[in-house]
Amino acid sequence: MTQASIQQQASDLLSREARYIDRRLWDDWLELFTPDAIFWMPAWKDEQTLTDDPDREVSMIYYQGRVRLGERVWRARSGLSVASQPLQRTMHTVSNIIVDRHDDEAVHVGANWSCHVYEPRTKAQHVFFGYYDYVLAGTPEGVKIASKKVTLLNDHLPLTVDFYSI
Amino acid sequence: MPLIEIDTAAAVARVHRRIFSDPAIFELEMRYLFEGGWVFLGLENQIPHAHDYMLTHIGRHEILLMRDRDGRIGAFYNTCPHRGAQICNLRSGNARMHVCPYHSWSFDSSGQNTSIKGKAKGGYTEAFLAQNHDLHPIARLESYRGILFGSLVSDVPGLIDYLGEAARMIDLSLEQGEGGIELLPGSITYTYRANWKLQLENSSDGYHVTSTHPTYLRISADRAKENMHSEGVTGLWERTKVIAEEHSEGSLGGAYGFDNGHAVVWGQMPITPAHPLYERRAELEERLGTARTQWLFNAHNLTIFPNVQFAENFANILRVIRPISPGLTEMKTYCMAPIGESPEARRQRLRQFEDFFNPSGLATPDDIVAYEGCQLEHILGGEQGWLQGYQRGLALLHKGPDETAIAIGVAPAYSVTGDTQLSDETGFLSHYRAWNQRLGEAVERLLETERRQEVAA
Q1: How many contacts does A have with B, using Cβ atoms within 8 A?
Q2: Helices B281-297 and B166-174: crossing angle, nearest 10°?
Q3: Edge-to-edge, what's the strand order for the sheet holding B39-43?
Q4: CB–CB of A58/A43 below 8 Å?
Q5: Phi, psi of B38 (to 5 degrees)
Q6: Half-sphere exposure of B146 (CA within 13 A, CB side)
Q7: By the CB < 8 Å criterion, does B437 face chain A?
Q8: How far is CA B186 from CA A49, A138, B51, B174, B357, in A?
Q9: Residue B88 dihedral angles phi and psi, to the nearest 5°
Q10: Could you read off the pLDDT of B274-326 as tens digits, one per residue?
Q11: E strands within A51-161?
Q12: Are B191 and A157 in contact (CB under 8 A)?
């Protein structure tokens, strides 16, 4: 594949991921991940430094396995979580998508993201924002997300956060 | 008539909603609790080396904690005595000298002023030169076994007396690691739109768990069923079935109240591989004996009134409450762990901590939203403003320790004991007794003023 087409493919995947999250096509969203995908949002150690070792330092979310994300999807839909009812309305924009490097195995992609959140319960609005770093891998079913690292830049949380608002 | 009535002999325990919403009450809480007595500051091992510093809060004041070149820790208001600029605006670091960014007055790591820019040519009077130009220290700073507490007023009992028997609960926590405890790198801070006492109560509230966190319990149970050993996320809350059932047998639980507002709520838990301490159960048993080892595997939440909570189950959290306004509270959270844990146990601990305690996790968001819902109608006045949620377990209240407390060497002022279905509400009584002791008179004066104004109008 050409550089341009790798770039286009990555861009399409990231855009589609955002759409699936926002439009609550969450089963499709889960399918974008490989079964053993890593989903990681580090915590901040100080004003400038993220935690970088999830085995020894706190993360905001650290999952190994798509099934963990599936648990959150279930929780959001269950009607048993007061934080998830009513659900926040979200709108992600993903931009500045750059393929950092690629080989036959994987494509490393970095991007910027922001997520506008409207909280119907309180009428509050907020924007979360930061960086995404992905590792995309080819599978028989197409290119999928093997790893997604979410850097949340405004980590002082004024309202609840879940997989759909980051 | 006060806003909090506790008379256990008469089986009266009630709280008026107004304490959660009234700005005048909030001001009294600032004056008499947060800025009027001991509050938690941090751990000594957060600033282990000479010249290490960190910022924290006492009430509305930002406090600079520093370790000087001789290793002594001091606590100062983070403000320049010159014209009030913020001395330090990084949360933590190491500095032999702090130079005020506004006019360069300099202070060493013991808070002493070391230079005033252009002093010789400054036309200063004798009176100025005689003034103390050091950073303002807080009134009292003491450490209990490496845990730092500070007070902005000097007229307080010694920390040991303030902690009282609750210090035994701290001892038990510290004993889980032979080398003590540490706070893991990475902390998460969040705000919720409700009063600080909703968080104060929540940690002493077992009753809410099956109602507020059924999704967390169900996810944990499903993982246990599937024997999900990946990343050590094994059966959390393996007794969730027991907790959820109406009738549980043989699993104890209850609460302990201590003087000065401290309280513990606890529930017996099995000693299982789901717990990060499991790998060291033999070592713990030998060092601490059976009763205290079992205690470490139990779920237990300790609140040291008014601002710090140690919640321990399959992971431990140290969380600090900072009230900002009657309807806004900031929480700062740390993962607390025994020093010297194996990498596997540490990994397991982190995953469990993140799942349960993080505001980005599967449980805390539901607490937050519950608080915010309560806050909406905490403006309800009059007779209807009295809340009913402080009476569960009153019939079982008895003075002194229960068997479990005796076995672990703690003598609380009162105990309530039952099975894990008890989930009593007596822990709150300890907090609110202290509240009444410390600001009851001031509240009464406030109410009296209001009554007189009403009559006059």
Answers
A1: 112
A2: 140
A3: B39-43, B147-151, B140-144
A4: yes
A5: -70, 135
A6: 16
A7: no
A8: 9, 33, 21, 21, 13
A9: -130, 125
A10: 899 999 999 999 999 999 999 999 999 999 999 999 999 989 999 999 999 99
A11: 59-64, 89-102, 106-119, 124-139, 142-152
A12: yes
Whether A113 contacts A130, CB under 8 Å = yes
Tens digits of per-residue pLDDT, B42-87? 999 999 999 999 999 999 999 999 999 999 999 999 999 999 999 9
ipTM for the whole complex: 0.97
- Determine the Cα–Cα distance for residues B433 and B259; give it in Å rounded to an integer: 9
**Would you call B186 and A161 a contact, using CB atoms and an 8 Å cutoff?**
no
Burial A69-81 (b: 16+ CB within 10 A, else e): bebbbbbbeeebb
Which region holds residue B76: left if phi is over 0, alpha if psi is between -120 and 50, else beta? beta
Q: Assign B38 to helix, strand or coil.
A: coil
B360 touches chain A (CB under 8 A): yes
CB contact under 8 A, B186 and A160: no
Question: Which helix (H) or strand (E) covers residue B291, if one does?
Answer: helix B281-297
Residue identified by tokens 């109602």 is B211
Looking at beta carbons, which residues of chain A come within 8 Å of B91?
46-47
DSSP output for B178-193:
TT-EEEPS-BEEEEES
Query: Sheet holding B73-77: strands in order across?
Result: B73-77, B61-67, B52-58, B92-94
Q: Across the interface, which of B190, B219, B354 has its CB nearest the CB of A71?
A: B219
| Whether the bond into B81 is cis, omega within 30 of 0 | no
Tracing tokens 């710090």 back to the chain, one arrives at B308
Which residue among A51, A61, A64 places its CB closest to the CB of B360?
A61
**How many angstroms separate the CA atoms of B288 and B407, rounded?**
11
What DSSP line would sit under B174-239, residue for residue? HTTSTT-EEEPS-BEEEEESS-HHHHHHHTT--TTHHHH-HHHHHHHHHHHHTT--GGG---TTTT
Establish whether the linkage from the previous residue to B48 is cis, with ω within 30° of 0.
no
Instruction: For residues B9 and B3, give the distance between their C-alpha atoms in angstroms, rounded to a whole number.
Output: 18
Nearest to A64 among B231, B361, B370 (CB): B231
Residue that is written with structure tokens 């500070």 in the block = B150
Q: Is B190 on the interface with A (CB under 8 A)?
A: yes
